[in-house]
């Protein structure tokens, strides 16, 4: 028998979500985009009780955090949290991030850090969302370049009519690339 200290779920749904968690910026914010996707298990079945957390820079590539080396920017939360619904779908309303400093004075392509929590997972898994229109920045990004070329597509969102789509595949064919953090 598993105990709460041995598994993440189903305890995710008891108090972790909050009402405006999926809205990093309020509805109607100029330039806001919606990122929507599905979370799939290893058999390709949508996961109805996962939790997606996002952390990102603002459009100028700055964070509302005291450790931002360029100085803290205020007024942009940068953090979102959304449980998947009964169909395995999540959504985040946000602004597109700007590039941020990387190692050796190089810039990282605009991206959103994503943590995924779910039943049966003892630890979160961490990935990134990159955006297809940033071709040059993506090609120069040290983190994205460290991923085998044939798997990089799992980190790049698809542009849609009303924003972007980014599906997460936890295991199996087409598994999303996850990073050790």
From TrEMBL:
Start and end residues of each Intradiol ring-cleavage dioxygenases domain: 9-172
Keywords per UniProt: Dioxygenase, Oxidoreductase
EC numbers for this chain: 1.13.11.3
Pfam families, alphabetized: Dioxygenase_C
Gene3D superfamilies membership: Aromatic compound dioxygenase
Top-level taxon in the UniProt lineage: Bacteria
GO molecular function, one term: ferric iron binding
Listed InterPro entries: Intradiol_dOase_C, Intradiol_dOase_core, Intradiol_RC_Dioxygenase, Protocat_dOase_a
Similarity remark: Belongs to the intradiol ring-cleavage dioxygenase family.
PANTHER family xrefs: DIOXYGENASE, PUTATIVE (AFU_ORTHOLOGUE AFUA_2G02910)-RELATED (PTHR33711), PROTOCATECHUATE 3,4-DIOXYGENASE ALPHA CHAIN (PTHR33711:SF9)
Protein's recorded name: Protocatechuate 3,4-dioxygenase subunit alpha
UniProt organism field: Amycolatopsis acidicola
Gene: pcaG
């Amino acid at each position: 028998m598993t105990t709460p200290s041995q598994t993440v779920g189903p305890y995710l749904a008891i108090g972790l979500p909050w009402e405006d968690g999926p809205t990093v910026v309020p509805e109607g914010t100029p330039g806001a985009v919606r990122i929507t996707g599905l979370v799939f298990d290893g058999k390709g079945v949508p996961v109805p009780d996962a939790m997606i957390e996002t952390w990102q820079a603002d459009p100028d590539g700055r964070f509302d955090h005291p450790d931002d080396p360029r100085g803290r920017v205020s007024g942009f939360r940068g953090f979102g949290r959304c449980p998947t619904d009964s169909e395995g779908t999540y959504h985040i309303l946000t602004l597109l991030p700007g590039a941020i400093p990387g190692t050796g004075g190089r810039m990282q392509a605009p991206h959103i850090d994503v943590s995924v929590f779910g039943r049966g997972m003892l630890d979160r898994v961490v990935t990134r969302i990159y955006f297809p229109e940033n071709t040059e920045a993506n090609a120069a990004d040290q983190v994205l370049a460290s991923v085998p070329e044939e798997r990089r597509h799992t980190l790049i969102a698809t542009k849609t009519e009303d924003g972007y789509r980014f599906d997460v595949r936890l295991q199996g064919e087409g598994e999303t690339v996850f990073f050790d953090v």
